Amino acid sequence: MYKSIETLLVEIPTIRPHKMAVASMHTQTLVLIKITTEDGFIGWGEATTIGGLGYGEESPESVRTNIETYFAPLLKTSAGLNVAQTIQIINRNINGNHFAKCAIQTALFDIQAQRLGLPLSEVLGGRLRDSIPVLWVLASGNTEKDIAEAQKMIASKRHNIFKLKIGSHTVEQDVEHVLAIKQALGADVSIRVDVNRAWSELTAIKGIQMLQEGNVDLIEQPCAIRNIDAMERLTRKFNIAIMADESLMGPQSAYELAKRNAASVFSVKVAQSGGLTEACEVGKLANYAGIDLYGGTMLEGPVGTVASAHVFSTFSNLAYGTELFGPLLLTEQILKTPLQYENFELKIPTGNGLGIELDEDKIDNLRRK
Ligand code: MUC
Ligand code: MG
Fold first, then answer.
1. What's the pLDDT tens digit per position in 42-76?
2. For the chain, is the Cβ count within 10 Å smaller at the N or the C terminus?
3. Which numbered atom of ligand 1 lies nearest the CA of 246?
């Protein structure tokens, strides 16, 4: 049934350095999975991460090795099974590896949706919207450059909500940077911060207090991944939205975080969730728990970005919008027709499957050989 399962590592420089507490990026390594069936369908998936092993527990190289060594042989034995049955076999035989699992699942759903002649969103339960709001992340490392970049984005109607990457400087320096940007952009522009788990609980109390007083709208992942106790205390202590990102690793952890009241917003990432259906389950669980939703990114290229967009289009609550700007951070586009970003939103493709056409010659030129 599956003729080939390929993993391609595609290196693309970023339009400017992207500085975060966990890594400074100058290039992004897209991890693309291409599955070709015996009857001529091609499905794409993506397992891109950030900063090698700086962000998560899987690297581009580990994803490639694990797909070639463990996933591909399993897939070859699953001929005739549907997507759910294939995923069940993968989950029974392979521990962890959420990014690789998500990429494989995306490619299988892409094929399935093409076979059915439907956009991917319809196979996931059905879209509730045709476009989604997308914010921009200011992470040049320089306050004045960030302000100029934001003003350009607002003027061109591309983004009017901004997330700032902090946590690499002292809390006072970080707060000064954030409040200078907030003041320059004005009261109507929503500013959020992502600490990428850089703060201790005491530093977080100090930082969040000042940011809340400065009318910042949201604090993302202030403390360590497994420090759920601190996340719980901070969520109870402050009125400002506290969002779980790295701590949210799929439906089981969503359940734990919700039970503990350890976040008021979930940043749902398809790869971190372990797959598209798992990301949908996180969304449903958040609804039942009264937790607001935000569509996160791993700075994926167009494949992971569009797969995420199809998932987020099915969410009934998307109170904090999304950050699906990954392809815009790259100097090269790898689609024949680029994704459409306009009026502060991303249009969700309407064609069958993912609804995108990859430029395979370009990918071949950019990929690691
Ligand atoms: C993260 O931690 O949210 C998403 C946007 C961005 O700039 O970095 C990522 C990772
Ligand atoms: Mg984050």
1. 999 999 999 999 999 999 999 999 999 999 999 99
2. C
3. 2
328 Cβ below 6 A of ligand 1: no
For the four alpha carbons of 14, 369, 3 and 70, in that order, the dihedral sign comes to negative
Task: Kindly report, residue by residue over 244-280, the tens digit of the pLDDT.
Answer: 999 999 999 999 999 999 999 999 999 999 999 999 9
Distance 158 CA to ligand 1 centre (A): 18
Q: Count the alpha carbons within 13 Å of 119 in the hemisphere toward its beta carbon.
A: 22
Instruction: Write out the two tokens for 184.
Output: 């320059």
Ligand 2 centroid to 349 CA: how many Å?
Answer: 25
Residue 119 tokens read as 């956009």
Q: Which of 192, 297, 300 to mutate to test the pocket of ligand 1 (most atoms within 8 A of CB)?
A: 297
Distance CA 278, CA 219 (A): 24
> Which amino acid is located at 282 in the chain?
V
Active site residues: 165
299 CA to centre of ligand 1 in angstroms? 7
Report pLDDT for 357.
98
Q: Give 79's pLDDT tier (boundaries 50, 70, 90).
A: confident
Which domains, from first to last, does the chain contain?
Answer: 2-117+358-366 (3.30.390.10), 123-347 (3.20.20.120)
Contact between 30 and 302 under an 8 Å Cβ cutoff? The reply is no
**Residue 300 beta carbon below 6 angstroms from any ligand 1 atom:** no
Torsion sign, CA atoms 254, 257, 261, 265: negative
| Whether the CB of 299 sits within 6 Å of ligand 1 | yes
Phi, psi of 33 (to 5 degrees): -115, 130
Residue nearest to atom 9 of ligand 1 (CA): 298
